[in-house]
Amino acid sequence: MPYISADEFKNHRNYVAALDKDRQVWHGAWQDLSNNFLPQRYRWLMSSTAYSQNRASRQYIINNTGTIAARTLTAGMINGITSPSRPWFKLRVPGLKSSEHPDLAVWLEQTEVILLEVMAASNFYNSMAVVYLDMGVFGTAANLIYEDFDNVIRCYNPPLGEYYLGTNSKGLVNIFARKLNYKIYQYIERWPDKKYWSDRVKQAVEKGGGALNDDIEIHHFIAPNSKRLVSNRFKYYEMYWEGKRQTVEGGQQPVLELRGYNELPGIFARWEVSGTDAYGVSPAMDALGDSIELQHLHRNKAELLEKMHMPPLLVDIALQNNPVALMPRGQTFVANLNNTSGARPINTVNPDFGTLVQDKQSIEERIKTTFYNYLFTGISDLPTVRSAEEIRSRESEKLILLGGVLERFETEGLDPAMKRIFSICDRAGLIPPLPEGYEDMSIDVQYVSILSVAQKAVGTAPTERMLGLTGNLAGIYPDAMDITDIDRMLINYARDIGIRESELRTTEQVAEIRKARQEAQQASEQMQQAPGMAQAAKTLSETDVGGGGDALNALMGG
Hints:
The chain is of the alpha+beta class. Among the domains are: about 285-365, no CATH class; about 505-540. It contains 17 helices and 15 strands. The chain has helices at about 5-35, 50-55, 55-60, 65-80, 100-120, 125-140, 185-190, 200-205, 285-310, 355-370, 375-380, 390-425, 450-460, 460-475, 485-495, 505-540, 545-555; strands at about 5, 90, 140-150, 150-155, 165, 175-185, 215-225, 235-240, 250-255, 255-260, 265-270, 315, 330-335, 345, 445. A hairpin with a 5-residue loop joins strand 5 and strand 6 (about 175-185). The longest helix is centred in the last third of the chain and has 40 residues, at about 390-425. About 25% of the residues are buried. The model is unreliable at about 550-558 (pLDDT under 50).
């Protein structure tokens, strides 16, 4: 357990307090989103009273369309971006065709398999599901990625409301802080050195029993290593300390943990960012009003149904003397009720439930549309059977709307995750050495997920139209084929739709195939011409040319 100076420790505490102040403007909005879409999931967004009474899940949601829409978006992004069932990335060396470098191609494919196997064996995909859910509902998500002895990597999803974020001059998140609670027994399991325990921890250990189950506040901080709190070779550092522990004598403060990292040990992704905000905005924020209106509509509908079947009554005061009751089943006692005895309804309720149902369906559709559900359930939601071309055109148009989100997520989510996981695997000795001659090459990642390929495929439409037009014109105007470089267009098209370079032939192989085809064609043409040439020779030999024929025979030695 290391020490840092009291001044540096104070700076960290003040920085966390400043981050907390910046986050306050978001807290109310997140609480509304949690109540209306994911109740009881995030305790840090509830008041202590609501959490202890466990009432949040029953207060707000009557119609769960918003919750289902959020989970549909999550499932679609899991399968569309980081599918556990198919490769969603490939490695490459910028400027080189791996198909022309066999040793490099083998290394790239081996490394891809290793990374995919490590992800599949860990909880990476489960944690990414939480990332997509948090992004869709709250607009901000965090996923910490650490080395793990059993599964190489292990991921942790801090709940929203527990952590704080800070950004650099480029608007990218590079500072992470949070306040979390550990049980005393968890504390001593992770930091077993008694020499650095606080008095509270020592007293709880001495007391034993239930005292070990008490909570203790821990602060966690990740930031660039600009102040050189760890070795200069590390770009980032991470520190844990007890939240309420005071500085010890001598101006030194013990911290629970202080370590360095070569890369940011996690991903911090936002759905969409406004200006210089550290936190993102989400589809759920746009759908919040519709969700609240939907709950209100259902409450009104339920009340109308009750008033229809069990309306409030006007009852003769001679029957009983009770206060006014206008709720369903209520009774209000009055004198001389139309000069008759008995009871009758106060009013007649005859609502137009057809209009209510239409309003409900309209609101539900708006919520689903806001959550992009049509991207993932578009075919099943079509009212009639459509052609494949029409479906593809519709989906291409819709994917454009998600393009900016996908590009941002690749930058803020997938790139840091790939860099982190690759580095962990490399340090663990799982990545084979680069082939000789390629040691100084930089490795790039190309994403070939369903959504990534679909986004790129939108841009292939001009290529398809050009190839179609050229092919149609070639029949009546062969010179049209001279305008375009068909080989280059096909290569670029294959790249855009996610075809691997190893699945394409090299330029030399194509040249050899075409040469062999041309030679075979020439040989075939010669064979077809051979009978005609033989017959012509025979005819010529039988032709009477007079003396010339004798002279020819004499010349040939006949």
